[in-house]
Amino acid sequence: MAENTFKLKIITPERVFYEGDVTMVEFNTIEGQIGILKKHVPTTVIVSPGVLTITEEEGVKMAALHAGFAEILQEEVTILAELVEWPDEIDSNRAEEARIRAERRIAANDDGTDLDRAEIALKKAIARISAIK
Questions:
Q1: Which of 49, 57, 59, 123 has the lowest CB atom count within 10 Å?
Q2: How do residues 37-68 score in pLDDT, each as one tens digit?
């Protein structure tokens, strides 16, 4: 492990999505976006839908990260995620259709609409679309 890297492990219920040495990882939390470098203050955060950016010494990888928890230690970060998708695993047409449906539900704002669920669906769709670009 290089001097400025730390261990990152991302686990979903179906698989170990990523495991390796990184120089930085960035993702959304319920309190905003966070960027983590080696020797970060230890903490635990709740993950919010958005783009996951993994910076390795060789380059940058992006994925859509949907929800979960992250344990941040000075030498290691573990993300337990509901779902994470690499860009090549995302169906762009389906993501765009999901975005449109969620926007319509939010715009309708009738008594039968669960706005929290619609907003989360919109964030997930936008995360997928952004990860592809």
A1: 59
A2: 999 999 999 999 999 999 999 999 999 999 99
